């Protein structure tokens, strides 16, 4: 072990990382998909979600964005699903799926009587989806893709641990959004952080190689954010501290920090998906590339192979950030973070994860172009905007 000091936004942070040899990305995949970091202490002991899941049928589970890994299903179940012989209104089917570890990002254990005894979640809950190859919500895993139909607020609101006012607030999040600054868990209690809630779009985590700073506000390197989420949001048993946001959590043994290196290696191996064949007008995209570099002034911030300037700060550990007014974004969420500013978003696999901006205020890429055309007074023509959209779709 050694202590690695991370300079972010001018503040010295510390994080203990396990550096015993080179990480194996396949170990990281197992961590990403199946490791709860002991977060059953939140989801079972406090939120009592194991009680809730005993009564949730597959149709309801799919309606709030939970996904089923088709490759984890036995051939008999696959055949029954294809022939419509599975009763998706039966909660017992949900429990059977949990028993065979087929629900993406969810892990349950069962007692000797076959009753669901514990419930926990993994990184894959928010940052994986499926290709719907078997049925809507049922297919092969797509690790790193944002689960844009997941409704974390609605799921949390099912817990009997929250009062009516908190449940109402959680239900305002909607599909594909989560507020990581709404609350934190310290190993014993759910701590309120900010209200009213300001949810942000769950981002994809593919194409991060070379980006270094993952979050909308670049609070720290990727492993900083993995630590923050793993401990304070998922409820994993571990240690996290950041005096900038006055959050200090210490739990031993630490089940999160020693796994950050392998988890990072797997995340960095996830490549952004290419556009679907025939989905881009190549001639228009070629024109749009010129607009991106010239009339649109996009390349001023979206630089190089990662299409972001976040690593153009004074040192490689200090991000380059932008004031909220500079980019025409609402400041409320940023003000609740460690930096108070926004990072230039890397442009990776854009057609796969609408809506755009941290708050999802741009429904499609044309809305993004229109936003910056207005903020920067570019005066692009409709034809130029259309070409620029085609180029963005090609990235």
Describe this structure in words.
With 395 residues, the protein is an alpha+beta fold. It has 2 domains: 2-269, no CATH class; 282-309 and 344-394, Orthogonal Bundle (Cytochrome Bc1 Complex, Chain D, domain 2). Helices cover 29% and strands 13% of the residues. It has 14 helices and 14 strands. The chain has helices spanning 25-34, 40-43, 49-53, 58-63, 75-82, 91-99, 124-127, 152-156, 164-170, 222-233, 260-269, 282-293, 365-375, 382-394, and strands at residues 2-8, 11-17, 68-69, 106-110, 116-121, 128-130, 138-139, 141-143, 177-178, 183-185, 190-192, 200-201, 240-242, 247-249. Strand 10 (183-185) and strand 11 (190-192) form a beta hairpin. Residues 1-21 have low confidence and may be disordered.
The structure class reads alpha+beta
Oligomer: single chain
- Report the helical percentage: 25-40%
Q: Give the DSSP E fraction (strand runs of 2 or more residues).
A: 5-15%
What would you call the shape? globular
Q: Report on the biggest sheet.
A: 2 strands, antiparallel
Q: Count structural domains.
A: 2
Number of strands: 14
Low-pLDDT windows of residues:
1-21
> What's the total helix number?
14
User: What is the straight-line distance between the termini?
Assistant: 39 Å
Indicate the mean pLDDT: 93
Strand order of the largest sheet: 1-2
Mind telling me the C-alpha Rg?
Answer: 21 Å
- H/E series, N to C? EEHHHHEHHEEHEEEHHEEEEHEEHHHH
Question: Would you summarize the structure shown here?
Answer:
The chain is of the alpha+beta class. The protein has 14 helices and 14 strands. 29% of the residues lie in helices and 13% in strands.
